[in-house]
């Protein structure tokens, strides 16, 4: 694989990563705001939309020769966000385990306090994010590259 396929050319890599950064900031704002639908069942569609934006950004990276690293980085950042930001927001809000539910939606299915969940997310998050980046990011990048070749 040539080095340009891995690193890319032009500014489109910045655009792909920037789209994921903007989506992450918007999702963080929704987590931080006291909006009830986001706090209950709205967390899964929010997380799916964030990963969806990242997969589309990886496809964009493949379509516009941004490099495979941009595609992987997009999916990695969005996936890692799910494991780190919600527990960090819960810790900042002062959420505790005994409050009768979480004030901030978090990915853990077991009852952990925010600090323990943040530590678990920092341990498990990069592993899961790397697996998603290598599978979803590579597939989306390849699909984007295939669309580029078909349109030429």
**SS field, number of helical segments:** 6
Cα radius of gyration in angstroms: 17 Å
Q: What fraction strand?
A: under 5%
Terminal CA distance reads: 20 Å
> Could you tell me the number of beta strands?
0
- Low-pLDDT parts are none
What is the N-to-C order of secondary-structure elements (H for helix, E for strand)?
A: HHHHHH
Shape: elongated
**Percent helix:** over 70%
Overall structural class, as computed from helix and strand content, comes to mainly alpha
Q: Give the overall average pLDDT.
A: 80
Number of domains: 1
Largest sheet: none
Could you explain how this protein is built, in words?
Keywords: Membrane, Transmembrane, Transmembrane helix. With 152 residues, the protein is an all-alpha fold. The protein has one domain. Helix content is 76%, strand content 0%. It has six helices and no strands. The longest helix is centred in the last third of the chain and has 38 residues. It is elongated and about 55 Å long.
